[in-house]
Design brief:
Elements: H1 10-21, E1 24-29, E2 35-39, H2 41-44, H3 51-63, E3 68-71, H4 76-89, H5 93-104, H6 108-117, H7 120-151
Antiparallel strand pairs: 1-2, 1-3
Helix pairs in contact: 1-7, 4-5, 5-6
Length: 152
């Protein structure tokens, strides 16, 4: 049986990319087209009070894994490359130099964030860039999943 094509609305794309950025696991229901976001328990550990909020979704996904396609978060390498790509777009040569230097030091993610946070204009540009790249990353995964389904 051939699976249906995965299609997400713009709202679902934005929700999925935002939830991935927050450390959630994203599952696309191949039958209903709905998105289920659940905490990544490997990243966050178990929740004392909050796990119950997602308990039904987690049980449903675990009970019917063939009904779901998981969307992955960016790897550290991919996130690093995104920061490099943003730094390359910065018109302010002084800030561009600071951003690239921050990526060459220990704790590059933290250092990059500190540099961006010190400039409100570029901070807003960074958030816009990051959001656009995150949505593009989710779209690429969907295309790959659809190609895999076409080959089955």
């Amino acid at each position: 049986m051939k699976e249906q094509k995965i299609t997400l609305t713009d709202a679902q794309l934005n929700e999925a990319s935002g939830d991935l950025d927050m450390g959630m696991k994203i599952y696309y229901n191949l039958k209903t087209g709905e998105i289920n976001s659940v905490p990544d328990l490997e990243e966050f550990g178990a929740f004392d009070d909050g796990e119950g909020l997602w308990e039904d979704s987690i049980k449903e996904i675990e009970s019917n894994p063939d009904n779901y396609a998981e969307l992955e978060k960016m790897s550290s390498r991919q996130s690093f490359r995104m920061m490099e790509n943003f730094a390359a777009t910065v018109a302010d040569d002084n800030l561009k130099s600071k951003l690239f230097n921050s990526l060459d030091r220990k704790s590059p993610f933290q250092n990059f964030k500190l540099e961006v946070d010190n400039n409100e204009h570029y901070r807003q540009l960074w958030f816009k860039f990051k959001d656009e790249e995150s949505v593009k990353f989710v779209k690429e995964q969907i295309e790959e999943l659809n190609q895999d389904n076409d080959q089955d």
